[in-house]
Amino acid sequence: MEARVVPHPSVPTVNEAYWRLVSEFPLVPIRDDAHLEQALEIIDHLTDTLQHDTGTEAYLGALADLVYVYEQEHVTWPPVTGVDVLRYLMDEHELTQADLAALFGGRSVISDVLAGKRRLNLTHITRLADRFGMPADVFIDREALTPDPTPFSDK
Fold it and tell me: Which of 74, 105, 121, 145 is 20 to 30 A from 56, alpha carbon to alpha carbon?
């Protein structure tokens, strides 16, 4: 008697598009940086397409998971501050300090933040997250969250 596998109801049904994508770029663990670059190119190509069927969505999700696993083990990201993120977003969106001054309560405040004379505060972070549609934590400096290993001094 032949064994019949019944898929779990939460598992999406795959179609011909899924198998075509698997045959072009198999879903196997990413082995090196060149393989990673290929996977990222495929992800970029697939995400540029506006319409996805269930098979393409399933493939894209699985490939993104493989990329995530590889990057967690092999890619070291440089430390980035909230101000670095802000500068990047200003550049990408072609924004000036004047364009964002209202979020900071004035031009002098954003100028001081970008010059490193002031830190982003909770109000700034919340407003920036809302403005750019991003999680607030991307604007929080990780060093500020690291506890001092010697908080008390004998002096």
Answer: 74
Taking all residues of the chain, what is their mean pLDDT, rounded to a whole number?
86
**Residue 6 three-state SS:** coil
Rounded-to-integer distance, Cα 123 and Cα 26, Å? 46
- For 30-57, b where at least 16 C-beta lie within 10 A, e where not — what string? beeeebbeebeebbeebeeeeeeeebbe
Number of domains in the chain: 2
The domain of 66 spans: 16-74
* pTM for the structure as a whole: 0.52
**65 and 116 belong to one structural domain:** no
User: Tens digit of pLDDT for each residue in 47-64?
Assistant: 888 777 888 999 999 999
Q: Model confidence over 1-10: pLDDT tens digits? A: 566 766 666 6
DSSP secondary-structure letter at 110?
H
Whether residue 55 is found in the same domain as residue 87: no
